[in-house]
């Protein structure tokens, strides 16, 4: 069985905020697991980036962590999630409600569709306060206002009374962050928080998340497809492909010493800002669908190095400091030679 | 100019009227006095953030919109006021690739009819059989198979749909293709496939490409020359390598420094811009960038800067009063080439590149 551990062996279990261990999930009626044996953990003050392309299961994993998958659609097939040292049942919505939105919060990609267009933003943030704890309306509004100041919204008193459509994309994402952080969460899950934004605004939002994290020491899980964003903010990285973690480890090692062919392919596909402009390497083909998921290594159908043995589950190989890659042939340079 | 120009825009303006006679009319200056020269065979990129007017610009160049003022010349012919038959002929020579491959293809049409439709419009004399052959040829050109003609758009992935869109654009044998964010809806690995395809097609078919994009790395990879737009105006223009190594306009500098680079621990002097782009309905006086510019001075609030030559290379222009002073005070950052830290990692990248280029599986090393 493949198990990818992100936790460093020297870390005491106490400061681990959230641990996903050997988590598998499939949709009802499906033959194969959509998410297969995924493990990672987040500590206080740490930023974990889950990176992968569309359909790799990164968003489903994050929704599962929040207990937000529609009931009856998906079933957990193995493993589980521990938060605050407590194993929790993803079906027990009542228990989930206790910490969802307060101890563990989430921001989404598209701030326009995640804010309610018919309520003033001040009321929406205040509502998040009042849902968790007995606060008077005045207290809640005061906290909402203080939060808007913290996320750097100019003229916050005026903005409190405005509606989402009156704000720009960057401002809306700041409001989303204010709403997520108003209850001082221990863990923030950010699902592509800057994808819909322009680069200059993206830089502002990443700086904001980093500053707030330093201030509050919260753990952050950032889900993104952009390796540039990952390089900016990640402490540890988990690369996902087709519902499995193919490579994980400290950011420095993932970028400087990538091991899995998919990670290498992904990095080679990005056009560079410096150096020669040759032909881009690509990852040929496309992600297999859930019904056609190959046995063994799920990347084998697109991997230029695939051999017969890849039809069996690859054992994760360790490269020190918690850096693991699930490939039969890692490191590639010791197993292959360039064709003449 | 001795260059062979295919498309020329002169003092192009597009103002959109908003509001009603009750609320008071105002106009949004989406494109404000833009001039461009595009040479035959080159790839020209227009870059800018949302709301800068780059998509309006593309639609003006295509004559999908009529300009409020100014002139577009295609192949020596003024096309600003073309109508009817002449406009249809122009459409054959100029084609468009849209951003979203999900909404730009009619879901009720099979791929064969989607690609065949422009053939029907522009070459009505073609027989059904000829058309079918041509469709198969076009699909082959973009890396799809002839039997895909029977299928419907929903059966394809995003990258394949974008290929269908490209086949459709190529159907009328155009001289010029404008791509409005042609790869930004795609995942990086698929994006790389489409970028490679577009550059192959340009070389094989002798096309001129105009690419509108917000991703600077994609632009650097694909294009020969770049124009940077901000609030409906071109603020800087020049050869791609010069723009990336010696940007002169403060906005270009900020834009370049804001791109996250997929490399660990790179230290960069980031110029962080505060606030958002102002509304094009109510642009600031003077230089439209002065509200966010870290180098703004009093002159910037009153005087509109014109594009003028920089001291770098011929054809590099920037619209800033103080770019010489700024360049003197803030020398260009020398950006090192990105390479993985270890030799072993570099050899893995080389192995991967080799395998991709040759299309063969590398040899398994014999164990000693």
Task: Explain what you see.
Chain A: GO terms for molecular function: ATP binding; ATP hydrolysis activity. Chain A: Belongs to the ABC transporter superfamily. Chain A: This is Peptide/nickel transport system ATP-binding protein. The complex is a heterodimer of chains A (340) and B (368). The relative contact order of chain A is 0.15. Chain A is 31% helix and 22% strand. In chain A, helix 4 packs across helix 5 (137-150), helix 4 packs parallel to helix 7 and helix 5 crosses helix 7. Chain A folds into 2 domains: 13-103 and 183-335, P-loop containing nucleotide triphosphate hydrolases (Rossmann fold, 3-Layer(aba) Sandwich), CATH 3.40.50; 113-182, no CATH class. Chain A has 340 residues and is of the alpha/beta class. In chain B, helix 3 (111-122) runs parallel beside helix 5 (158-170), helix 4 packs across helix 5 (158-170) and helix 5 runs parallel beside helix 6 (188-205). Chain B contains 12 helices and 13 strands. Chain B has 368 residues and is of the alpha/beta class. The model of chain B has no long low-confidence stretch (mean pLDDT 88). Chain B has a domain at 5-223: Rossmann fold (3-Layer(aba) Sandwich), CATH 3.40.50. Helix content of chain B is 34%, strand content 20%. The radius of gyration of chain B is 23 Å and the shape is globular. In chain B, the strands form 2 sheets. Chain B has an 8-stranded mixed sheet with strand order 6-7-8-3-9-10-12-11, with helices on both faces. Chain B has a 4-stranded antiparallel sheet with strand order 2-1-4-5. The chains are: A alpha/beta (340), B alpha/beta (368). The interface between A and B is large, with 66 and 69 residues.
């Amino acid at each position: 069985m493949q198990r990818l551990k992100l936790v460093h062996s020297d870390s005491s279990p106490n400061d681990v905020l959230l641990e996903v261990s050997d988590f598998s999930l499939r949709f009802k009626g499906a033959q194969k697991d959509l998410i297969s044996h995924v493990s990672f953990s987040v500590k206080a003050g740490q930023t974990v980036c889950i990176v992968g392309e569309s359909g790799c299961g990164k968003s489903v994993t994050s929704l599962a962590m929040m207990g937000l998958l529609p009931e009856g659609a998906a079933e957990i097939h193995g493993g589980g999630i521990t938060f605050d040292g407590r194993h929790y049942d993803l079906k027990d919505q009542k228990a989930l409600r206790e910490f969802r939105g307060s101890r563990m919060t989430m921001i989404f990609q598209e701030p326009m569709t995640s804010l309610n267009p018919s309520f003033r933003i001040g009321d929406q943030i205040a509502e998040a306060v009042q849902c968790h704890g007995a606060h008077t309306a005045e207290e809640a509004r005061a906290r909402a206002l203080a939060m808007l100041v913290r996320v750097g919204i100019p003229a916050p008193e005026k903005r409190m009374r405005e509606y989402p459509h009156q704000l720009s994309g960057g401002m809306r994402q700041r409001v989303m962050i204010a709403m997520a952080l108003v209850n001082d969460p221990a863990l923030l899950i950010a699902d592509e928080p800057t994808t819909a934004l322009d680069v200059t605004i993206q830089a502002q939002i990443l700086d904001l998340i980093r500053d707030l994290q330093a201030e509050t020491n919260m753990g952050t899980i950032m889900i993104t497809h952009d390796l540039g964003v990952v390089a900016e903010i990640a402490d540890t990285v988990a690369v996902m492909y087709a519902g499995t973690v193919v490579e994980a480890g400290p950011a420095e090692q993932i970028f400087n010493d990538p091991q899995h062919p998919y990670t290498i392919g992904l990095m080679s596909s990005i056009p560079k800002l410096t150096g020669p402009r040759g032909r881009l390497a690509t990852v040929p083909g496309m992600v297999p669908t859930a019904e056609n998921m190959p046995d063994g290594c799920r990347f084998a159908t697109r991997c230029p190095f695939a051999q017969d043995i890849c039809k069996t589950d690859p054992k994760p190989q360790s490269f020190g400091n918690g850096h693991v890659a699930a490939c039969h042939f890692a490191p590639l340079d010791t197993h292959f030679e360039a064709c003449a | 100019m001795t260059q062979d120009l295919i498309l020329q825009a002169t003092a192009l303006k597009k103002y959109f009227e908003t509001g009603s006679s009750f609320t008071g009319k105002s106009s949004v200056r989406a494109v404000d006095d833009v001039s461009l020269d595009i040479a035959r065979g080159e790839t020209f990129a227009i870059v800018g953030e949302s709301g800068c007017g780059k998509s309006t610009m593309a639609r003006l160049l295509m004559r999908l919109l009529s300009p409020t003022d100014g002139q577009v010349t295609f192949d020596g012919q003024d096309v600003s006021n073309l109508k009817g038959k002449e406009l249809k002929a122009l459409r054959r020579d100029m084609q468009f690739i849209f951003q979203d491959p999900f909404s730009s293809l009619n879901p009720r049409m099979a791929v064969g009819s989607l690609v065949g439709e422009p053939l029907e419009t522009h070459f009505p004399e073609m027989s059904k059989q000829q058309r079918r052959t041509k469709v198969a040829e076009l699909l082959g050109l973009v890396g799809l198979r002839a039997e895909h003609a029977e299928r419907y758009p929903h059966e394809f992935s995003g990258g394949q749909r974008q290929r269908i869109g490209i086949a459709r654009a190529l159907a009328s044998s155009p001289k010029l293709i404008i791509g409005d964010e042609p790869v930004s809806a795609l995942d990086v690995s698929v994006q790389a496939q489409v970028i490679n395809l577009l550059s192959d097609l340009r070389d094989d078919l002798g096309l001129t490409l105009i690419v509108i994009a917000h991703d600077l790395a994609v632009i650097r990879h694909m294009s020969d020359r770049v124009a940077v737009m901000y609030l409906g105006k071109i603020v800087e223009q020049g050869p791609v390598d010069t723009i990336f190594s010696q940007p002169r306009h403060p906005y270009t500098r900020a834009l370049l420094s804001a791109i996250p680079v997929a490399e660990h621990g790179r230290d960069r002097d980031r110029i962080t811009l505060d606030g958002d782009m102002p509304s094009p309905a109510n642009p600031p006086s003077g230089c439209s960038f002065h509200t966010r510019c870290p180098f703004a001075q009093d002159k910037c609030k009153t005087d509109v800067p014109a594009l003028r030559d920089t001291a770098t290379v011929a054809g590099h222009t920037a619209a800033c009063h103080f770019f010489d002073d700024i360049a003197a005070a803030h020398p260009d950052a020398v950006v090192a080439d990105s390479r993985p830290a270890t030799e072993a990692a570099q050899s893995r990248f080389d192995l991967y590149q080799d395998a991709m280029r040759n299309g063969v599986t590398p040899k398994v090393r014999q164990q000693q």
